[in-house]
Write a structure and sequence with these properties.
Number of strands: 22
Radius of gyration: 38 Å
Oligomer: single chain
Helix content: 10-25%
CATH class of the largest domain: Alpha Beta
Shape: elongated
Number of helices: 6
Length: 398
């Protein structure tokens, strides 16, 4: 009995001792005891308070290295130079004696490599021209589809033999255009990173014996070395569906994919089949002229690319041919424009020039002679008003 009582007393003493030694658990304040609890034991650690407050130190964030998209471009060797176009996503080697020039037409870039000089025995000066064009989004088209559409839009004859082949691991399409004016030209069409590229060589291989060695060498060097990579550009392209107006009652829609414009014209007018961009309508105002029967008409045309010039700068060189007091500065489709009267020709005309990102479009509205053709003026004004109020521009298809 005394033995049992003794065990109970010892047990109670142990409990009291343990209770007196208990401490708060998981305390994290500086200078206090911090306890980390595990299911089996209690391990006690003391954290010393620092004697001085440490100075704050700046944290250096490692710089992120962006891979150079042109890292896979070829290395030039003897007799060659490297051309890199990061904005348009390609690079290539070309002969070091060639001259390189780049220029822009609308939103599209083009680089040309030309060998100075000419063929010594040619009737006309013939030089080697190697051109690479970057022509905007392919919109999912492959190289063959791109070539087929180019033929439909630009080739004089659709009966052209086209060959599919591989160019440095990319599917491409090749064709040769017959010479109607100037030398025959070799064309390559391909799409890479959903961008359309068009490579041309003039004259075509085998058509200029005097140039053949250099011609073959330049072609092999360029096509054998060209590399494509994702373009480093945020350039935005405007498509017809983004801007073209929808036809309304009494009007019809006209879209010129290669011209880069669209408009509405009166339903009693009609496009001229063999003259893209011209519309005629109304009664015959004059018969058997040198240009056929005369009706009210409007023609949309182009005057070229004028970098770093205003529309008034372009008009300045033509002032001697127009009625200067008639000049009116305005805007059309949101772009700077100028309207004026040209009294020349068999009949006067009302004209306009529109500056669209450096590219000049023209409008010719005729006959602008109320006294001579009074029955035609309502039609002349009708086509002018319809076109100028609906005209819109987009990036031409290339």
């Amino acid at each position: 009995m005394r033995k049992g009582i003794l065990q109970i007393v010892i047990l109670l003493n142990i409990i009291v001792i343990l209770a007196g030694c208990s401490v708060p658990t998981q305390t994290t304040q500086t200078g206090m005891t911090e306890s980390f609890v595990t299911p089996e034991i209690i391990v006690t650690a003391t954290i010393e308070e620092p004697s001085e407050t440490p100075e704050a130190t700046a944290t250096t964030v490692p710089a992120t290295t962006v891979p150079d998209p042109a890292a896979n471009c070829p290395t030039p060797g003897a007799g060659s130079k490297l051309f890199v176009d990061r904005q348009n996503g390609f690079c290539l080697l070309y002969p070091d004696n060639f001259e390189q020039s780049a220029y822009k037409e609308y939103s599209y870039d083009r680089v040309q490599f030309t060998e100075p000089g000419s063929a010594p025995n040619a009737m006309e000066s013939i030089s080697i021209h190697l051109v690479v064009e970057s022509n905007g989004s392919a919109k999912g088209q492959n190289s063959t589809q791109y070539a087929q559409r180019w033929i439909a839009n630009f080739a004089v004859s659709p009966e052209i033999d086209m060959e599919d082949f591989m160019l440095n691991g990319l599917q491409a399409a090749s064709l040769v255009l017959p010479a109607e004016a100037g030398p025959m030209t070799r064309h390559i069409f391909l799409t890479a990173n959903d961008i359309k590229y068009h490579i041309t060589l003039s004259p075509q291989l085998g058509t200029a014996p005097e140039l053949e060695p250099n011609l073959q060498a330049a072609w092999d060097m360029a096509t054998g070395s060209i590399v494509f990579f994702p373009p480093q550009s945020d350039r935005q392209y405007t498509a017809p569906e983004d801007v073209c107006p929808q036809p309304t009652t009494g009007s019809k829609q006209y879209i010129s994919l290669t011209g880069g414009y669209c408009l509405l014209y009166p339903s009693d007018f009609a496009p001229v089949a063999n003259f893209p961009g011209q519309f005629t309508g109304g009664p015959i105002l004059d018969e058997n002229t040198d240009w056929g029967d005369l009706r009210a008409s409007l023609t949309v045309g182009t005057a070229g690319y004028f970098a770093d010039q205003t529309v008034m700068d372009v008009l300045e060189t033509r002032k001697e041919f127009i009625d200067v007091p008639s000049i009116q500065e305005t805007t059309m489709a949101g772009y700077p424009a100028v309207v004026f009267i040209d009294p020349r020709g068999p009949w006067a005309s009302r004209q306009a020039m529109i500056m669209v990102n450096g590219f000049v479009y023209t409008l010719v509205n005729q006959p602008w002679e109320a006294e001579r053709y009074p029955d035609g003026m309502s039609y002349v004004n009708s086509i002018w008003d319809s076109v100028t109020s609906s005209l819109a521009f987009f990036d031409p298809w290339r």
